Amino acid sequence: MGAAMNSILAPAVPGGAYDRFLVDALPKARAQREWTPEDGPLPALYLSHGAPPLFDDGPWLRELFGWAQSLPKPRSVLIVSAHWEAAPLCISAPGAHTPLVYDFGGFHPRYYTMKYDTPDASALAQRVAGTVPDGEPLYQHRSRGLDHGAWVPLMAMYPLADIPVLQLSMPTQDPDRLLGLGARLASLREEGVLVVGSGFMTHGLPFITPAMFHGEVPGWSSDFDAWAADALARGDVDELAAFKDRAPGMPYAHPTVDHYIPLFITLGAAGRPDAAVTTAIDGYAMGFSKRSFQTAV
Fold first, then answer.
1. Judging by DSSP bridges, how do beta strands 193-199 and 45-48 pair with one another?
2. Helices 58-69, 16-31: inter-axial angle, 10-degree rounding
3. Cα separation, 97 vs 262, whole angstroms
4. Fewest Cβ atoms closer than 10 Å to its Cβ: which of 1, 56, 145, 159?
5. This model's pTM is above 0.90
6. Where residue 6 falls among pLDDT bands split at 50, 70, 90?
7. DSSP state, 165?
8. 162, 181, 183, 165: which is closest to 173 by C-alpha?
């Protein structure tokens, strides 16, 4: 385990695992069946998105890709990332080939040259605008592209970059308001739009230790993950919303809440936030919980 973690953090060829992953993934991605109205609404997803080290983690890349392959190929993707908190509500630039946001530091130069040139998402931008109540502002950015909470996992899930993608800002940290925002987006799922909340089920960056790089999972991470898994299985939204007071492992698991609260966008978009979810990915990366799930349809 330690050797594997070392290779992820200091790979001989940065991004080499991603290059190898593409050899098998691209033919399957080209053959993926596209969503049709007969499929019914897509689920909403919450995913733990990782960062550049994901491109050196072959098993995690395959988990994300396998998850995407288990669903019909969406017509477009609307994603809310932990890394864009802005009010009033904002949407990213919808133009094709909008430059990415490389919002990380200290990594090999290769990761700052990666591209994810998605098609024009203007039609999705118009649909998102249509979900916003009259009188509520919505700011359309002209140049802001996808941040790493969006493009890093999507490069694993949809490596062809042939699906329109739009990013929506997270305008509040209040779980009830995020549930309401997600509920406004729920109808998009009936049109083949994949609604995604992107965070990390635990994200105690200030408390990371050398042992975590070698596979150790601290109690604050495993305890929080078990608590969240239980609440999600029971559809206990009130428990999930009271995480600051009720969740074990706090505040270490989330010294800031940005990577946890996209979960409420996902649950709101489900239509039934209290329905049990299906876990797609679990386990840990550098001691952080990778738990990712999809809602019932």
1. parallel
2. 10
3. 25
4. 1
5. yes
6. very low
7. E
8. 181
